[in-house]
Amino acid sequence: LQPPEKPLQDEEWNRLRENFQLPEIFEEVMLNSMIRCNSHIDVAKSLLTHMAKQNGDIAYNMLVKYLTLCVQQGQVSEIRDVYDIMKVRFKILEIGAYNLLIKGLSNSDQWRMALTILEEAKKIMIPSRTSYESCIKAASRHQDVKLAFELYNEMLAKNIVPTLDVLQYFFDFSMGMKGAELQKELFGILLYLRENQIYPHKTFMQSIKLWFESIPGGNWRGQLTNIKDSGQCPVCNHQLEDSNLTEEEYNNLSERIIRDVIHGTDTFRKTSPQEFKAFQTFVESRLPFDIVIDGLNVSHIKPRKMQCENLFEAINCLAKENVRLLVLGRKHMLINSSNWKREIMKEMQNKADFFFADNISEDDAFLLYATLRSGKHCKFVTRDFLRDHKACLSDSLTRHLFRKWQRGHQISKNDGFFSVFSQQPAFRYDCVVQTTGDTWHIPYKDVFEEKYSYRVPRKWLCVQQKR
Amino acid sequence: MQSANMLLKKVVRSSVLPFAAQHGMKKDLFPLSRTLSLSLCLKQDNSCTPSEKTDLDAWKKVMKSGLQEEVSETVSEPQEFSSLAAARETLEMWRLAGRSVPEKVSEEQLKAFMECPSKSAKKKYLRFLYLKELHKKNDRRKMEEKRERRLEAQEQTSKTEETNKSPFACLWASTMDKAYNWRAAQSMIFGQPLVFDMSFENEMSVREVANTVKQLVLSESCNRRSVDPFHIHFCNFKDNSLYHTEFLKHYREAWGKLLITVTDQCYTEVFPKDKLIYLTADSPRVMKSFDHDKIYIVGSMVDKSIKTGVSLARAKRLGLETAALPLEKYLLWNTGAKNLTLDQMMRILLTLKDTDDWKKALEFVPKRKYCGFVNKPISELKKTDLINILKLGKRQQEVQKGFAKNYSKKYKLNQK
């Protein structure tokens, strides 16, 4: 349906309506296509007038559609008129209309009104994050920085996740501005990135860099760099934070793994209490291990090869002097079959400790337990991303801890044999936004949309203050 | 002409109102009539000359006029309303905005709506109610249509002749019921037991429990209608549980008269352990044939979020034998989870008991989930056989995708 070029008379609308297949929804479809084609609002007005004459009233959803068109074109006076009409006509509006009004008004000199509408919207429901963002942008555009940060903090308090866009905006408009308070707030945003393990994208990183360098009298210098595998920053020679968890975090994580992942709602779902007990005594009597291997996962690395050969190769590759290996598997591996040759199994058992779980138990949970029990130096080998186990952890904080620990302890890429692995090798340093007061190190992504959530950026922004 | 008049009247009515409102809604007839005639002329002028530019903001006047009237009505209402009323108001606005919101919402539903933890949960719940309302409305409409048709038919027959008499007595539903109940009663003495494990209430949401009970009611009815029914046991059944209240909703007073055994005991207390087999899709063991001496257990659980291993955990805890239906073996699986609904399980088990024919029994697996039946186990089939079966399938593209996913390791399909 193509909307007309210019306003139509009643008769013309009637004619169009009659020619339309479903006359009942003609107006709705027409307005939708006007929004799509971005028609002149006079055309929409003439349709509304036609509707008003016909029915003596205009339905709410039609008004909202008209409002959408007005917002799309920034027709502020029309937006106000529609709002006035709606306000008297209905006791409250629904959230969609509020969002539109806020979006429309915040871009104009009537932006204060957007704030009152935001207040109104709060009464019925939590406003959307785009509403907050429109208001924040409006407030900061008009130099009301305090208000902007108030809104931002309110947003965080309501557990609304801000877009990177609005965070970047804060840095953009604060460029060259002075004030300890402002600086504190912006550092707060950087710490927010740290806590939630968010990585800024390239343009956002540029804004951060420029802001730092624009602080009057701050003497900040920013430089892009790659961190060495040792975790040292080549620019300022600063050693990045260790990827190891603190004692408390570590204990917390192991406790939660046992509680949420292994036991969960019912211990029998993943293992059985007898089996877990047996495993615990097995592990305790042989502690500590250096590397724990997920036997079945590793045995599938090269599909053309016999499974036990794959595993054998892996063990040979990892077994060095004084390295204690633990291989987790299932009982069916012990039965002589085309894939599992008894002699090779025997030979492997001389080089490493083996634990065989029941065929219907989950060995991954044991993998996590054994690694955590062995201590911070212990690493584990699997291609599995362990997403399902991470999902068993109930709160996001522990999930972050798990990811961090996993990054530091999961071996999945090595020369030669382990080249099949797609993940990165264990990191020695922690890949988050970090500061020492006079330096900041901020990892960033090249593109806005990163395809893999498990992949951490390799590029960093190093900012240091020259005294 | 008439319609034009109507139109005019409408316009006039609406354009009069602001005037009346401005004058404090005095019910003075005289000024009213004067504006009436005035605006009449105005409008006529307008319609006489279509070439003249229309007032594009006319709609605003109309809207503002209509609302003044309403405002003056609503002003007397108390300004503050309770949170319930506010929620109702929100719903109404959503409905006006064209979202899927039911017309009628009960107090109880409104409370449930407010308790939804997030915006999307609220939307989902409303959509559920909306669809329910839609179905109800459609059903009612169909019923009415049917009744009308029946009345018409009756009129016609009464006009023509009295009905011709059949030599057989009409078998009414109650007679059938009696026959069924006899069979069910017999099964309670001699029938093979079939256990439904009712211990999953904590694993399910309220809606899942409601769905479970619905499926159980269906299973019970098709068991009753079968030639040789099972003796149904509901084990681990707690009185006043959510299951119980849902059953009462469905059966009402018939709940006490059902020819099944309901007990709060566990099946291990009722039957010898070595005879029990827990049926679960997670079982590593695959059922080969139906054993008439065993007692099969089905978990009464609907898990929309696919919680794996819940019923397997029950069996493990009690050390019971488990089994899964040989779906992979006989069906070329297409999409969907391998857990079936309780009534499908019931039909499959009934058919197996009567015929021991897997093909017949697995007819009750939903057609969308598989794309063909094979008589031999899939691992023994040749490549060409598989392709032939796939070609018979209707949605080849889809099927091949699903097939490639499931069996790609064993056979490489030639797509050309």
From TrEMBL, chain A:
The entry's keywords: Hydrolase, Magnesium, Metal-binding, Mitochondrion, Nuclease, Transit peptide, tRNA processing, Zinc
Transmembrane regions listed in the UniProt entry: none
Required cofactor names: Mg(2+)
Major subcellular site: mitochondrion
Domain of life: Eukaryota
The keyword Repeat is annotated on this UniProt entry: no
PRORP domain span: 227-462
One GO CC term on file: mitochondrial ribonuclease P complex
Gene3D superfamilies in the cross-refs: 3.40.50.11980, Tetratricopeptide repeat domain
Top-level enzyme category: hydrolase
KW tRNA processing (keyword) present: yes
Stretches forming PPR repeats: 128-162
Molecular function terms, GO-annotated: metal ion binding; ribonuclease P activity
Gene Ontology terms: biological process: mitochondrial tRNA 5'-end processing; tRNA 5'-leader removal
Protein localization: Mitochondrion
Catalytic activity of the protein: Endonucleolytic cleavage of RNA, removing 5'-extranucleotides from tRNA precursor
EC number: 3.1.26.5
PANTHER family: MITOCHONDRIAL RIBONUCLEASE P CATALYTIC SUBUNIT (PTHR13547:SF1), PTHR13547
Family note: Belongs to the PPR family. P subfamily.
Protein's name in the database: Mitochondrial ribonuclease P catalytic subunit
Source organism phylogeny: Eukaryota, Metazoa, Chordata, Craniata, Vertebrata
Underlying gene: Mrpp3
TrEMBL record, chain B:
Ranges of compositional bias, category Basic and acidic residues: 141-162
Top-level taxon: Eukaryota
EC number of the protein: 2.1.1.218, 2.1.1.221
Keywords of the record: Coiled coil, Methyltransferase, Mitochondrion, S-adenosyl-L-methionine, Transferase, Transit peptide, tRNA processing
A biological process from GO: methylation
Recorded catalytic activity of this chain's protein: an adenosine in mRNA + S-adenosyl-L-methionine = an N(1)-methyladenosine in mRNA + S-adenosyl-L-homocysteine + H(+); adenosine(9) in tRNA + S-adenosyl-L-methionine = N(1)-methyladenosine(9) in tRNA + S-adenosyl-L-homocysteine + H(+); guanosine(9) in tRNA + S-adenosyl-L-methionine = N(1)-methylguanosine(9) in tRNA + S-adenosyl-L-homocysteine + H(+)
Gene Ontology molecular-function annotations: tRNA (adenine(9)-N1)-methyltransferase activity; tRNA (guanosine(9)-N1)-methyltransferase activity; tRNA binding
Cell location: Mitochondrion
Stretches the record annotates as Disordered: 139-162
Record-level GO cellular component terms: mitochondrion; nucleoplasm
Domain SAM-dependent MTase TRM10-type span(s) in chain numbering: 180-372
Name of the protein: tRNA methyltransferase 10 homolog C
Native source species: Xiphorhynchus elegans (elegant woodcreeper)
This protein's encoding gene: Trmt10c
